[in-house]
DsbA family protein
Amino acid sequence: MQKKNKNSRSLVIYTLVIIVIFGALFALNQAGKGKENANLTVEESPSISGQPVAGNADAKVSIVEFGDYKCPSCKVWGEQIFPKLKSDYIDTGIVSFSYINTLFHGEESKLAAQASETVYMNNPERFWDFHKALFDEQPAQTKHDDLWVTESKVLEVAQATIPGLDVEKFKQGLTSNPIQEKLDHDQLLVDKFNIQQTPTIMVNNIVIANPFDYEAIRKAIEQETN
């Protein structure tokens, strides 16, 4: 009987130890998830000087998208999140919105960025039309790796969005020094803010952990407007 009681006590102690260990592991796991889902506050906001701006350029809150025209997630973000952001905050003058080229997909990313910067340089009032139209041309994700950003494609989109486009001026602008300087400036911002994924969304100096979490974006905006 004494031996049986001793074994029972050992079993209880062993069970309690296992419970404590699993409880600790669960707590650590939840804490890790919390950190992953937490927004990051950095020292300063990205400069939007020389960048295309939608909304009130003098707004207290600046929202920046680090994006890539070849990025499928950026296309989805533009279709699902941006319209709500535009309706709630951009069109109402509460925030400004800017786009910074992030060249994560090679030469096609670069050509798309060159085209967008050329449009912005020569026809700034048509930039956002071109911006949306170029994303609209991105094929379905299953065909994402197919070559689709070509000079003929960006020219086609530019002609469709810019009445009376000066074709030769557009073509010459793609590889001009001023355009390369714009891309170099964007790359400096990408490096400065250690951008690792697209889209990355920043609300002033707050990096949104999940760019598809509109509620997190909304809360960050409200925080910055108070």
The longest strand covers residues 61-67. The domain at 43-225 is CATH 3.40.30.10 (Glutaredoxin).
